[in-house]
TrEMBL record, chain A:
Domain of life: Bacteria
Organism name: Desertihabitans brevis
Transmembrane parts of this sequence: none
One Pfam match: SBP_bac_1
Name of the protein this chain belongs to: Extracellular solute-binding protein
Organism ancestry: Bacteria, Bacillati, Actinomycetota, Actinomycetes, Propionibacteriales
PROSITE patterns linked: PROKAR_LIPOPROTEIN
Gene3D superfamilies membership: Periplasmic binding protein-like II (3.40.190.10)
InterPro entries: Bact_solute-bd_prot1, SBP
Automatic annotation (TrEMBL), chain B:
InterPro entries: MetI-like, MetI-like_sf
Organism lineage string: Bacteria, Bacillati, Actinomycetota, Actinomycetes, Propionibacteriales
Tree of life domain: Bacteria
Chain ranges of the ABC transmembrane type-1 domain: 87-297
Ranges in coiled-coil conformation: none
Assigned GO CC terms: plasma membrane
Family according to the record: Belongs to the binding-protein-dependent transport system permease family.
Protein name: Sugar ABC transporter permease
Membrane topology value: Multi-pass membrane protein
Location (main, coarse): membrane
Cell compartment(s), UniProt: Cell membrane
Organism: Desertihabitans brevis
Entry's Gene Ontology BP terms: transmembrane transport
Length: 466, 307
C-alpha cells in the first residue's frame, strides 16, 4: 500500500532527473566531435606576461599571407604561462591529435627531449632546398639536429649571458666604473659593498630555485658551474658528471648570496614572476645593483614596450661573468677567462599535426630576411643568420648587441641530450635547498648526484676528475 | 505442525520493501551513474593503469610506455621527499582540518546559537564569504596578508614587534591557517544544522537539573552531535588532504619543499619532472591515505551510529 502511494512521486522525480541529465550531457557530447578545420594552421608560442612582440610579428606575417593565400586561416595559440609550465602544456597538447598545434615555438634545450618522446617530426626534406638554411650558423644547425642525424626544427636566434649592473647604484656604493669582476670573490665584494652602503637596494640577483625554471639552471647555476673545473656533462664519454667539487662550490655561492642578504629575499626569489618585477620596477627604479641575466632583457624597455625606459642605456652597463678564481675557462671555445652560455629558440613541427605542409608555407613567410630582421630588432635577438647580420639595420641596432654577439664566439652550449630538461629540474631543486640555508651545499650536491644517477641510470654517470 | 499461522518474522517482512520498489528507488540514480561511467570510468581505470607504468611526458621514456609493476610504489617508499610530503600532509590536515577548522566551526556554531539575529546574519555572511571566494583569490589574499611587505607585518611593526616573511619562515603554518580561514564556514554550517536538531527541551531540563554550560556541552550536546562530528571530520579530512590550489598559490610547496604536501609532490613529479606514471602512483597512495582516514573515523563511531 505504501508502495503504491509513493510510486507516482518516484517516477516523476526520476523523469526529471533523467531529462536533466540528458540536457547536461548533450552539449558535452556535441563538443567532443568537432573536427579541426583542414585550412587552419595553429601556431603555438609562449607569451611572456603582457609582452606582445611575438603576437605583433605573427600578425604581420598573417597580414602578408592573407593576400597571397586567402584560403589559409592562421590561429595564434599563445600560452601565457611561466616557463616550465609552458613546456608541460606544450607537451600535453602535442600528445593529442585533437589539440596539437601545427607549428610550435620551442626552446632548443627541450627540443631533443621532445624528439625522443616522439612529439616532433623530422624536416630534412623541407629544409634541404631552402636557401635560408644555408644562412644559419653551424652551432645553430647542430642545436636542432638530433642524435639520429635528422633535423627537427628551424632555429630562429641565439642569446648569451652576462652581468648587467646599474651605474646609479654603483655610484652610490662608491664602486669604480667601468666595473669588471675578475673572480667570484670580486663579484661578492661588490655585492657586499652595495649592501653596506646602499642598504635599501638588492645587491645581486642570480635566478635560483624551482619556481624560476630553466632561468635558474641556465642564467643561474650553469653560469657558475662552467666557471669551475667541473662540468655538467662529459662530452667525450657522453655521461653525466657527479661528485664534482665545482658543483658544490657553485651551490656554495648560491647559499652565500641568499643567506648573507646579498640577493632578493626568499619571498621574491621564489616568486615565479620575479622577472617582471626586476625588468619593470627594480632596474628602472635603481633598486637592484647587479643582475646575472640574458642578452635579450632590454626588449622590456624599448620604444613601445610596456615598461618603456629610454634611459636604460647608459644607466645599465655590462660586464662578463668571471670564472671562479679568474682562471682560463676550461669549457669555452677559445682562450677566455669568462663564462657565457648560449641557448636559442626554434620552430618545430608536431608529429601528430596533419597540416605540416601548410605550416611549412607559413614558416617560410615568417623566415624571410625582412621578417626575421624585424623580429630580431623587436625581440633583442642575437641573430644566427648571415643575411640578417649583413643588414645595415641590424648592425649596432642596440647598444648591447655587439657585446653579446661577440660573446657568442666563446659561448658554451647546454648538453644536447634528451635527459637534460629532467636533470635541469634536479639542479633547480638543489638550488632551492641551499637557498634557505637549511641544507649544506655538500648535502644538496649528494641529493642531486643520487637523483641524476637514478634518472639516467648508473652506467650513464661518471665521477668528476676535479 | 499443520497450521503455521504465525507469519514468518513479521518485522522483517515489513522492513524489507518489495523488490520492485527497491529497483524503482534506484531509478533516479541511473542518469548520474551513466554520466559517471561515460565520463569518469575511462579516466579512473586509465589512471590506475598508469600508476603501474613508466609513462613519461618528455624524454626517451615518453615514446614507449611499459608496465613496471610496483616499481613506482617502491621508488616512492624509498624517497625521503615522499615521506617529507606525507608528514607535511598529515601535519597540514591535523592543524588545518581536525583541530583548526573543526574546533573553530564548532565554536562559531555554538556562539551563533546564543546570539541575536543580526549578529548571526553578519557573522554567517562574513564566514561564508571566505568559503565561496575562489581558491586562487583566497590564496592571493593570504599572500598579500602574510608576505614580507604584507599587511600582517605592517600591523606588527606598527605596534613595535619584529616583522618576518611568514611564507618563508613558517610556510606550513601559513597555508594551514589560510585553509582554516577558508574551510571554517563548511564545518560551521554542518554544526549549525546539527545543533538545530537538538530539541530545546533537553537543554532546559538539564538546566533545571542544575547542569552548567560546560556540563551541558559535554554530556548532552557532544553525544548528540557524535554522528555529525564524525561526518564533518571525515569530509573535511578528505577535502584537506587534497588541497592543491591554495598551497600552490601561496608557496608553491616551497621554500625548498617545506610546504610540499602530497598533492604538490604529485604535481611536481608528474608535470615538472614529466613522470606521469610515478605521479599517478602517488595519487593512488593519497587515495589510500584518505580511505584509511575514513575507516578510522568510522571505527570511532559506536556501533549503533553506524547503521
Amino acid at each position: 500500500m505504501a508502495g503504491r502511494r509513493r510510486s507516482p512521486g518516484l517516477s516523476r522525480r526520476s523523469l526529471i532527473r533523467a531529462v536533466g541529465g540528458t540536457l547536461v550531457a548533450v552539449p558535452w557530447l556535441a563538443a567532443c566531435g568537432s573536427a579541426p578545420d583542414p585550412n587552419t594552421v595553429r601556431i603555438q608560442y609562449q607569451q611572456f606576461g603582457s609582452g606582445t612582440v611575438m603576437r605583433d610579428y605573427l600578425l604581420r606575417v598573417v597580414q602578408q599571407l592573407s593576400s597571397q593565400r586567402p584560403d589559409i586561416t592562421i590561429e595564434l595559440v599563445p600560452l601565457v604561462a611561466a616557463e616550465a609550465d609552458y613546456f608541460t602544456k606544450n607537451e600535453l597538447m602535442m600528445s593529442s591529435p585533437n589539440v596539437t598545434p601545427d607549428l610550435v615555438y620551442e626552446d632548443t634545450f627541450i627540443l631533443k627531449s621532445d624528439v625522443a618522446a616522439g612529439y616532433l617530426r623530422p624536416i630534412d626534406e623541407l629544409v634541404r632546398d631552402w636557401p635560408v638554411w644555408d644562412e644559419l650558423t653551424a652551432p645553430s644547425q647542430r642545436a636542432v639536429t638530433y642524435t639520429d642525424g635528422k633535423v627537427y626544427a628551424v632555429p630562429t636566434h641565439t642569446d648569451t649571458r652576462a652581468l648587467w649592473y646599474h651605474t646609479g647604484v654603483f655610484e652610490a656604493a662608491g664602486i669604480e666604473q667601468p666595473w669588471q669582476p675578475g673572480s667570484w670573490e670580486d663579484l661578492l665584494a661588490a655585492a657586499r659593498q652595495i649592501k653596506e652602503r646602499v642598504p635599501d637596494v638588492v645587491p645581486l640577483n642570480i635566478f635560483s630555485g624551482e619556481p624560476q625554471g630553466e632561468k635558474a639552471s641556465m642564467q643561474g647555476f650553469e653560469m657558475l658551474l662552467y666557471g669551475t673545473q667541473t662540468t655538467l656533462f662529459d662530452e667525450a664519454s657522453q655521461k653525466w658528471v657527479v661528485g664534482g667539487q665545482g658543483f658544490v662550490d657553485a651551490l656554495q655561492l648560491i647559499q652565500t648570496v641568499y643567506t648573507e642578504g646579498l640577493a632578493p629575499s626568499l619571498g621574491d626569489a621564489l616568486n615565479p614572476n620575479i622577472g617582471d618585477t626586476i625588468y619593470n620596477s627594480w632596474l628602472p627604479e635603481g633598486r637592484l645593483g647587479i643582475n646575472l641575466d640574458g642578452s635579450w632583457i632590454s626588449q622590456n624597455w624599448g620604444a613601445g614596450a610596456a615598461g618603456e625606459w629610454p634611459e636604460w642605456w647608459p644607466t645599465l652597463q655590462l660586464a662578463t661573468m668571471p670564472t671562479q678564481h679568474g682562471e682560463p675557462n676550461p669549457w669555452a671555445p677559445g682562450e677566455v677567462d669568462f663564462v657565457t652560455l648560449a641557448g636559442g629558440w626554434s620552430w618545430a613541427f608536431p608529429a601528430l599535426s596533419t597540416k605540416t605542409d601548410l605550416a611549412w608555407e607559413v614558416l617560410q613567410q615568417m623566415m624571410t630576411t625582412e621578417n626575421a630582421l624585424s623580429m630580431a630588432l623587436a625581440d633583442n635577438q642575437v641573430t644566427i643568420r648571415a643575411d640578417v647580420r649583413a643588414e645595415p639595420d641590424y648592425q649596432g641596432y642596440s647598444p648591447t648587441i655587439d657585446f653579446f654577439t661577440d660573446l657568442g664566439e666563446n659561448a658554451i652550449y647546454r648538453p644536447a641530450v634528451a635527459a637534460y630538461p629532467e636533470v635541469s629540474a634536479r639542479i633547480q631543486a638543489a638550488m632551492g635547498q641551499v637557498m634557505t640555508g637549511g641544507t649544506t651545499p655538500e648535502e644538496a650536491a649528494a641529493t642531486y648526484d643520487a637523483a641524476v644517477t637514478d634518472l639516467v641510470g648508473p652506467d650513464q654517470v661518471v665521477e668528476a676528475t676535479a | 505442525m499443520t497450521t503455521t499461522t504465525a507469519p514468518p518474522s513479521s518485522a522483517a517482512a515489513e522492513r524489507r520493501p518489495p523488490r520492485s520498489r527497491t529497483v524503482a528507488r534506484g531509478l533516479p540514480l541511473v542518469p548520474a551513474v551513466v554520466l559517471l561511467l561515460v565520463f569518469m570510468a575511462g579516466p579512473v581505470v586509465y589512471s590506475v593503469y598508469l600508476a603501474f607504468t613508466n609513462e613519461a611526458l618528455r624524454g626517451e621514456g615518453a615514446a614507449v610506455t611499459s608496465l613496471v609493476g610496483l616499481d613506482n610504489f617502491a621508488t616512492a617508499l624509498a624517497d625521503p621527499a615522499f615521506w617529507n610530503s606525507v608528514l607535511l600532509t598529515l601535519v597540514f590536515t591535523l592543524i588545518s582540518a581536525v583541530i583548526g577548522q573543526n574546533l573553530l566551526g564548532m565554536a562559531l556554531a555554538l556562539l551563533m546559537r546564543q546570539s541575536t539575529k543580526v549578529v548571526r546574519a553578519i557573522t554567517g555572511a562574513v564566514v561564508i564569504a571566505a568559503w565561496i571566494l575562489p581558491e586562487v583569490v583566497a590564496g592571493y589574499l593570504w599572500v598579500t596578508f602574510l608576505a614580507e611587505d604584507g599587511s600582517l607585518n605592517a600591523l606588527l611593526t606598527g605596534i613595535g614587534l619584529p616583522a618576518q616573511d611568514w611564507l618563508v619562515s613558517v610556510p606550513i603554518w601559513a597555508v594551514a591557517f589560510a585553509n582554516i580561514w577558508r574551510g571554517t564556514a563548511f564545518t560551521m554550517l554542518i554544526y549549525t544544522a546539527a545543533l538545530a536538531g537538538i530539541s530545546p527541551e533537553i537543554r532546559e531540563s538539564a538546566e533545571m537539573d542544575g547542569a552548567g554550560p560546560v556540563r551541558r556541552f559535554t554530556t548532552i550536546t557532544l553525544p548528540l552531535l557524535r554522528q555529525s562530528i564524525a561526518t564533518n571530520l571525515m569530509l573535511i579530512t578528505l577535502q584537506t588532504l587534497s588541497v592543491f590550489g591554495l598551497i600552490w598559490i601561496m608557496t608553491a610547496g616551497g621554500p625548498a619543499d617545506a610546504s610540499q604536501t602530497l598533492p604538490l609532490y604529485m604535481y611536481e613529479q608528474a608535470f615538472s619532472y614529466g613522470q606521469l606514471g610515478y605521479g599517478t602512483a602517488i595519487a593512488l597512495m593519497l587515495l589510500l591515505i584518505g580511505a584509511l582516514a575514513s575507516l578510522a573515523y568510522l571505527r570511532l563511531l559506536p556501533k549503533e551510529d553506524k547503521q
